[in-house]
Amino acid sequence: MLFRGxxxxxxxxxxxxxxxxxxxxxxxxxxxxxxxxLLGVQPLAPGFAEFAVDPVVSAAPWAEGVVPxxxxxxxxxxxxxxxxxxxxxxxxxxxxxxxxxxxxxxxVRIGRS
Length: 113
Fold this sequence. Notes:
The protein is mostly beta strands. About 10% of the residues lie in helices and about 35% in strands.
């Protein structure tokens, strides 16, 4: 969609043509995928009490975003630097981050939002 100049999320991969609509709920699925896979933030417990930070780092050299939760926003920026990934994470007190794919050499900086 980005490479074809889209200004909204398409309902079908071919884009808006032949009666497809841009107003269906599933057209917003890319928003979830960007949060859950590119940014890498996914809930592991209700209300994000425990959450995974597990981005698909092969998809982009970096990503940054904010994920709203009932207790406040989770801010994450990650960047590939050579063979390591540097994570800068801020989250509300009481939420517990888990890094399932963290490798030796990765750097994690955690603060509170």
